[in-house]
Recover the amino acids of this structure.
């Protein structure tokens, strides 16, 4: 990054000594203080910070819960009740952790749809975006593993259904299933290893988040216009502008989070999970947590085991190909009148799939699931390539500044940012 | 100031390359080192993977299980566990047996005659694993349009011989290894001793 005023200069002798040995403070300064941020970002751009906060909260509440939890099939269920009844503030730790998972997904879905609407996945942000898809996959795995730990009926049968999904993989499926179970069915060995992996994966997520932020700071942030930063006047410094805005949004999000913890702590869960795991009886309506419902609907839309499994995984993996499936040169849907309508149709289809995932697998629900599943894939495989070729985008503003102040106006003070390589990366993808 | 890699390059450059049609000594060392690394990595990974397989205690818990059939009423289904897996033992009514035997094989998703689902001379008794072959839920007995089972999770339907009649389940309910030790007793896990049944 260029610009002397924005570069970290160590002042004390100790700071100089340390900086010349490990330029950590300088890295933090250039990443989170002087980093140029497009000046037109809206509140949808605060969810990255909210997600980092949620990851931190989940790790902290999780580490504390693990101090009281017992991952054996005989004791797991009771140890969760022990946390709820006997451990000081155990109820708070557990409700914050369980609802925290849901809030984490609320934030990640807003983050993902923001990305898709504003075309943030497009060149040069493909690697940044794919790292995000990897984080999403790891989040799903972590959430699934965590949901099995209370060892209630939904935990047990969720674990059974998902591990049976893996058995559908040709050739190696049965071996993978056996290695996950550590037995001939879901049981105590399964619970033990799921706990181990549930503790591991969040730290892997944290590692990929570091790469995600690193990639972000190489290519720079997208913004509602989708056009890159062209001059210093298009940008403001990360601190204080983005920092304060992120903190404010995080506080508002915490209010939303607190509502669930303190007023509706069980609403997002299932009553069946307060019945201890029973391998002889499946709950009448077995449904995953709300954040998996669209994929569950896709799984059930196909009357074939392997086919359903392929489509379900495909529904997540197809996200990673969006940068190459979208043929439009314009990023932001604000300037794409036709694609914008398809985008909202896609959002509606995802919500409807989620609703269908919670319904019994019969009659009209299955047909509706099949129609929605078709559109889900068609959006990526047909709409994204074709609309980009035929659509005429509306006129883009000349610059980010112009989109904020209106055309031809100048900003009064010279409060621009020096911007360097970070804002204008190679766009060949 | 030369870095470590520069020094390494200088050293490498100072060694005259001995190229020939059969490759250099360095090629050989490179391949040999790579092969040793691959074998070593696999050898190191093996105990980690193998430790995740069912342990000796779990395997030992799969000793054969004797089930007394006398208390099971006609039409009744009981459930037992062998190796942690749910097993249905069903005393089928004469009508159920007849209906099942009359089914055309061409109507079946996973064709199997009724006689292949039971032991010879014991057509009344059906012994099958109790987890749906789709995703492992427990189907509900005496339900579905074939008097067999229907799965509450994803809607698969099985007939009174445990054969899948409607998907998404791809195969019939599997039959555990078992044998009749007398007319009123079976031993589950006895047939084909030593054969692992997952």
């Amino acid at each position: 990054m260029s610009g002397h005023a924005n570069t970290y200069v160590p002042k004390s002798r100790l700071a100089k000594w340390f900086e010349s040995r490990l330029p950590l403070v300088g890295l933090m300064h250039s990443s989170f203080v002087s980093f140029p941020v497009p000046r037109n970002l809206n509140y949808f751009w605060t969810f990255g910070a909210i997600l980092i906060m949620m990851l931190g909260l989940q790790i902290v509440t999780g580490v504390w819960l693990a101090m009281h939890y017992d991952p054996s099939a005989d004791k797991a269920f009771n140890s969760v009740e022990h946390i709820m009844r006997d451990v000081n503030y155990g109820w708070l730790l557990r409700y914050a952790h369980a609802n925290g998972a849901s809030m984490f997904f609320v934030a990640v879905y807003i983050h993902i749809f923001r990305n898709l609407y504003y075309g943030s996945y497009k060149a040069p942000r493909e690697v940044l975006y794919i790292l995000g898809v990897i984080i999403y996959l790891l989040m799903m795995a972590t959430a699934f593993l965590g949901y099995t730990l209370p060892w209630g009926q939904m935990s047990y049968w969720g674990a059974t259904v998902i591990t049976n999904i893996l058995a559908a993989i040709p050739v190696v499926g049965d071996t993978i299933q056996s290695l996950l179970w550590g037995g001939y069915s879901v049981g105590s060995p399964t619970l033990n290893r799921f706990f181990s992996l549930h503790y591991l994966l969040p730290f892997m997520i944290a590692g990929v988040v570091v790469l995600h932020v690193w990639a972000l700071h190489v290519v720079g942030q997208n913004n509602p216009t989708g056009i890159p930063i062209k001059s210093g006047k298009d940008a403001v410094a990360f601190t204080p502008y983005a920092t304060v805005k992120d903190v404010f949004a995080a506080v508002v999000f915490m209010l939303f989070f607190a509502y669930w913890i303190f007023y509706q702590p069980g609403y997002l869960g299932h009553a069946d999970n307060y019945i201890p795991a029973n391998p002889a009886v499946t709950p009448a309506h077995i449904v995953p947590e709300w954040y998996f419902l669209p994929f569950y609907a896709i799984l059930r839309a196909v009357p074939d085991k392997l086919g359903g499994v392929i489509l379900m995984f495909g529904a997540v993996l197809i996200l990673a190909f969006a940068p190459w499936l979208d043929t439009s040169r314009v990023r932001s849907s604000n300037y794409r009148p036709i694609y914008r309508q398809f985008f909202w149709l896609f959002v509606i289809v995802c919500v409807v799939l989620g609703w269908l995932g919670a319904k019994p697998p019969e009659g009209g629900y299955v047909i509706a699931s099949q129609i929605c599943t078709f559109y889900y894939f068609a959006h990526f495989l047909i709409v994204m390539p074709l609309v980009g070729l035929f659509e005429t985008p509306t006129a883009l503003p000349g610059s980010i500044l112009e989109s904020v102040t209106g055309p031809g106006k100048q900003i009064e003070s010279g409060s621009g940012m020096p911007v360097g390589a970070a804002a204008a990366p190679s766009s060949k993808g | 100031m030369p870095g470590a890699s520069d020094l390494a390059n200088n050293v490498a450059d100072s060694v005259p390359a001995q190229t020939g049609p059969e490759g250099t000594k360095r090629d050989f060392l490179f391949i040999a080192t790579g092969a040793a690394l691959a074998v070593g990595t696999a050898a190191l990974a093996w105990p980690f993977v193998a430790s995740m397989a069912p342990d000796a205690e779990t395997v030992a818990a799969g000793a054969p299980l004797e089930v007394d059939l006398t208390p099971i009423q006609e039409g009744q289904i009981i459930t037992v566990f062998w190796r942690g897996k749910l097993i249905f033992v069903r005393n089928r009514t004469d009508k159920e047996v007849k209906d099942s035997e009359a089914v055309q094989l061409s109507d079946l998703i996973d064709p199997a005659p009724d006689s292949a689902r039971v032991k010879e001379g014991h057509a009344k008794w059906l012994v099958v694993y109790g987890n749906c072959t789709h995703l492992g839920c427990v189907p509900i007995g005496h339900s579905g349009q074939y008097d067999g089972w229907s799965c509450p999770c994803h809607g698969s339907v099985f007939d009174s011989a445990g054969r899948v009649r409607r998907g998404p389940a791809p195969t019939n309910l599997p039959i555990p290894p078992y044998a009749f030790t007398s007319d009123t007793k079976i031993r589950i896990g006895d047939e084909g001793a030593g054969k692992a049944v997952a």
